[in-house]
């Protein structure tokens, strides 16, 4: 289950332990223990720890280690981020899923899963902005140095565009959604005022003709407002200076002309991310795919740290027991003649005797 950015609070965390065991070799248990030490903090009673994300480990002062297991050391430190969410909402989400007959296997940080899945290694490293224009909200996330640095949620999305069309054209919400999908364009310069289509208007007995450009201007007004709000918060943290530019995704990002409009507003390179999965090649599926893909590819270090939150123990590899084959001792009595060879020899002797007998009868 994905937890949206507007429910999240992120805090830095740090833990330190003495490495256990006589050999001083860092084990899975040590990683779990240092994660538990990092979670020793005062959490408000109305909030709950969702996840801990290890960023790096330090072994006896040596920094920048991603996986310390197998190393020899005395002191192990971990630096990372702790994500918390409102306890009541998280509980209700879990109960809702359980009532549907399912089980929540993982609470996933949605913006983290999104950025980890759709960005390349270079984009994560050098810095990129991801804007997910969903139906009910728009989430802006910044990934830099392969870490989620910033998130912002604007409670406006594609449904607001549909409501605007419905209000301005005085048509039903369903008709407005169909108009947005079939005729909509977010960049009026790409449209034509001569292209018209019928619209069922409430209170009119006959459909009213609306031109393509007028519809596009309605869409542009709302999308421009959404992007400008994202631009304001991004300018405050100088995120628009990052070389990766902006990556758009989400259901409303599939409106034609959205990339041109975004590029004009943000003034940086903008591209649209479309999932490359058969039958799911539409930005509306990006969030779902990213949550599934992210959960399926979590590394072992994260799983160990997660155990400090949930109490789960990462399953160890099953040892394979090989059954030793029984050796049977045999005695060697020299080469043995096979029954087939004996039969062939008997057959040959009988044939020779018959030939001898035949010629003997002739010369008698």
From TrEMBL:
GO biological processes? cell division
Name the GO cellular-component terms: cell division site; cytoplasmic side of plasma membrane
Query: Can you tell which superkingdom this protein's organism belongs to?
Result: Bacteria
Q: What are the TM regions of this chain, as residue ranges?
A: none
Q: Which residues form the SHS2 domain?
A: 1-118
Q: Mind listing the UniProt keywords for this protein, alphabetically?
A: Cell cycle, Cell division, Cell membrane, Membrane
Q: Which residues form a coiled coil?
A: none
Pfam families named among the record's database cross-references: FtsA (PF14450), FtsA_C (PF11983), SHS2_FTSA (PF02491)
Q: What's the protein called, per UniProt? A: Cell division protein FtsA
The species is: Enterococcus aquimarinus
- State the organism's lineage: Bacteria, Bacillati, Bacillota, Bacilli, Lactobacillales
The gene that this protein is the product of is ftsA
